[in-house]
Amino acid sequence: MKPFELQSFEQRVVFGEDHLSTLLPLAQDFGMTRAMVLTTPGRTMGATAIAAALGERHFATFTGAVVHTPVEVTDRALNVLGDANGFISLGGGSAVGLGKALALRTGLPHIAIPTTYSGSEISPILGQTRDGKKTTIRDKRVVPQAVVYDVSLTLSLPLDLTVSSGFNAMAHAFEALYAPDRSPETDRFAVEAIAGFAQALPILVDAPRDWDARAMVLYAAYLSGRVLAARTMGLHHKLAHVLGGLYDLPHAPMHAALLPHVIRFNEAAAREQLRPAADALGHESAAEGLEALALKLNAPRHLAALGMPLDGAGVAAELVMQNPALNPRAYGASDIEKLLAAALGS
């Protein structure tokens, strides 16, 4: 067996169906007497419900979280934070990312309530955008002290976002399988996550509010977040961060459009590592399995449809090559341009 090392982070995880009943005890445990609620403009009703559940412990609400965590938005949230002594984020990667950015700056406790499948709530990775460039750091200080998974919050998630967010989470699992620091535990989590998505996402196409399928997808997302937190991500995540910062592409749909192309590229050098994923998808090839699943789910397939310029591959390739990611297959700028040309749909 290959030697491995595993870093874990202190974090309380609550998985269930009634987030409001758990919030007050958690806030008390973490000393939040003046809590700020963080969310996106589309989640104001949920934020109001959290504020009511907190009662006198609610201090302020900030509803300006946006994708890719721009530093100027974090600055605005800091101005609202005032004398708050903790915060609760409600939403997908945008809200959770803002909470992580605030935690890095303030050291205050953070309770995350994810409503999508991004996995950000589990990981020590923070991506921030400044002047069109997205950079990432890995720091244990950004890991939320607690995560509350509530299946009921995902029942109304639109099908298109359910699918693209599921592919976002699957990207973590796929890249963990060929990570240079992979371990038996992360392999097991990754394969279980991929199998869960492959089984449950097609059910949601016909029955978007199926409770068991929603619970399975949410649990698979949790497992994907675990491997994202523990392992080094490769080319796929590098491309996603570059394209997100450069062209402000929607995060989850971008992952969905990119992932089959990156896995096809990497499978030439990592077929054995990806074989369990192929088996979980019911195909000889992991890339073919992903492509078939994307077609079945009507997942986003072309970056051009998401807003990437048809002539944007060259600039993106240059940025990727400034700080290349560890990857099972070596690549150069021309490889990136070819991959992106295929993903563009041009």
UniProtKB/TrEMBL annotation:
The keyword Ribonucleoprotein does not apply. Keywords: NAD, Oxidoreductase. InterPro entries: ADH_Fe/GldA (IPR001670), ADH_Fe_C (IPR056798), Alcohol_dehydrogenase_Fe (IPR039697), MAR (IPR034786). One of its GO terms (molecular function) is metal ion binding. Residues 11-150 form the Alcohol dehydrogenase iron-type/glycerol dehydrogenase GldA domain. The keyword NAD applies. Residues 162-343 form the Fe-containing alcohol dehydrogenase-like C-terminal domain. It holds the Pfam family ADH_Fe_C. Belongs to the iron-containing alcohol dehydrogenase family. This is Uncharacterized protein.
